[in-house]
Task: inverse folding
């Protein structure tokens, strides 16, 4: 039986952080489903750097169908979860069904991968305290305030958490996440 992976996201998620894990995990043979606050077509964005700007710019990316809404998710049928970055983490963290799903993955020690700005979605849940975590550089104050150690590396594995700085780190990020998935019974 194929392992099932859940991608937890919403509008304005970083396009590459949704599409790369979706395709890479399917390529590996996993069944992958996307959950968002509601079952709908979500709008992703492309974050990139332009000369003369101090921070990244944002353009519309791909439109992606969410397979189910957060309130429809039974986390017990999934072997792991991925939370893409972008701006989606800022608002999905306020969804109580999202919080329940993430809490289940943490409490059951199932692999949970999150990158870039996705750590913002875990901050209010208190799950970063005492952990080592990679994220986009501008989140260092948020990560340390949450009681975690910010690590500026391609990928950080801390227990069942796999984190990275941004989409540029995808090869190491997905390699380590897949390694955790394969180590499960």
Result:
């Amino acid at each position: 039986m194929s392992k099932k992976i859940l991608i937890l996201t919403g509008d304005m998620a970083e396009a590459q952080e949704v599409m790369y894990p979706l395709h890479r995990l399917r390529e590996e043979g996993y069944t992958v489903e996307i959950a968002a606050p509601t079952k709908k077509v979500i709008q992703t964005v492309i974050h990139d750097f332009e000369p003369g700007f101090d921070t990244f710019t944002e353009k519309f990316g791909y439109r992606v169908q969410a397979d189910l809404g957060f309130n429809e998710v039974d986390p017990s049928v999934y072997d792991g979860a991925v939370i893409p970055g972008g701006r989606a983490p800022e608002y999905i963290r306020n969804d109580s069904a999202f919080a329940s799903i993430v809490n289940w993955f943490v409490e059951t020690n199932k692999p949970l991968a999150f990158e870039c700005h996705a750590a913002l979605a875990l901050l209010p849940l208190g799950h970063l305290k005492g952990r080592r975590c990679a994220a986009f550089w501008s989140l260092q104050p948020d990560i340390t305030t949450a009681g975690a150690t910010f690590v500026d590396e391609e990928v950080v594995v801390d227990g069942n958490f796999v984190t990275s700085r941004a989409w540029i780190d995808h090869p190491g990020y997905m390699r380590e996440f897949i390694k955790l998935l394969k180590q499960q019974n």
In short: The longest strand covers residues 57-65. The domain at 4-183 is CATH 3.40.50.880 (Rossmann fold). DSSP finds six helices and eleven strands in the chain. The longest helix spans residues 170-183.
